[in-house]
Amino acid sequence: MKFGGTSVATLDRIRRAAKRVGLEVAKGYDVIVIVSAMSGKTNELVGWVNETSPMFDAREYDAVVSSGENVTAGLMALTLQEMDIPARSWQGWQVPLKTTSAHSSARIEEIPTDNINRKFGEGMQVAVVAGFQGISPEGRITTLGRGGSDTTAVAFAAAFDAERCDIYTDVDGVYTTDPRVCDKARKMDRIAFEEMLELASLGAKVLQTRSVELAMRYKVRLRVLSSFEEPSDNAGTLVCDEEDIMESNVVAGVAYSRDEAKMTLVSVEDRPGIAAAIFMPLSEAGVNVDMIVQNIAEEGRTDMTFSCPTEQVKRAQKALDDAKAKGDISFNELVADTGVAKISVVGIGMRSHTGVAAKMFKVLSSEGINIKVITTSEIKISVLIDRKYMELAVQALHDAFELEKKA
Ligand code: ADP
Ligand code: ASP
Ligand code: MG
After folding, report:
1. Nearest 5°: phi and psi at 304?
2. Residue 92 near ligand 2, beta carbon < 6 Å
3. Mutation test of ligand 2: which of 132, 154, 211 has the most ligand atoms closer than 8 Å to its C-beta?
């Protein structure tokens, strides 16, 4: 059972969450509870790091931002103990949850089960684990990227061969789009792993992308449900195999990502190796490049455009300026447009239906929204647009593809 930030935002909510855990214990289950930091806490910690050191040492970033989860893990264990349920807390390093050393976006390598299982054998009924954090081969604290507690939860479910992995959050399941942006958004009873994976990676933060990948790979029975609603057996949304869904819409959902930046290198040389010379330093600087467009070349020069999260713009600028100073690349200007958002439509049905892209473009044009960059893959189409049109675009697409209606 994983409880996100809003579900543990106050002592009272921790008590409510603990009661849910108690219900499962009463059914005879041993439970592993994964907790996030209290809502807002991680943002505050990230803010403190940035204020102290804008080009921070990622190891210390992790040391700071992982701490919110330590508090809730201890408080949850104490709350359970107050309910006479034998529980104890575990920080990532105590498990130990072993990760790579890619600080701030580490990947889980291994979760040994013996320590926790021994305690279950000795009568412990609930292991409360601090989500989002682990330990690197060098013995330093790592974090798994924002939203990483979801991944901790699925990884534990896989490692312990759990019967279920229930993700408790502040909405009662996965919707056709973010219900905060579109009031016609419809809760889905089921969604296919592949669609959930795309929605998550394109910005639907209800599940961290990596958690969906892990659930798909290890066949974890993954549910998303609300910690505020009365418990029931078929509440929430089940993330499952495509074959387990009877009917589905061509477009399953619309996702958005608010904090995108569009970066354009004006007039770079057009020669073999130029893309590598640009994107290698960006990758080494830890910039997550998403869309890439290279314009038509003229007289041996071309423009190269890419998108990345707004928070990485400074890093990207520095990496490219350094590469220019070293003579690895040359360009006239680097233009950063930090006012864009990415809107995507996702659906497995696109494999067999044509016309989705054309319809998407038509809908946006009839709202007067200009498209700046387009990318497509087998089951998704993404566009970059001005951020001020983001909500409008999501709502218009949701209407046009009739997502409020069930297939
Ligand atoms: P938690 O703190 O529990 O991990 P998050 O804030 O990370 O919760 O994720 C839940 C939020 O995800 C919801 O409040 C909702 O605004 C947002 N969200 C975005 N897209 C969707 C979607 N398609 N379905 C449900 N929620 C979504
Ligand atoms: N507290 C972390 C975050 O806000 C991890 C999580 O909540 O999943 O990103
Ligand atoms: Mg989350």
Report:
1. -125, 125
2. no
3. 132
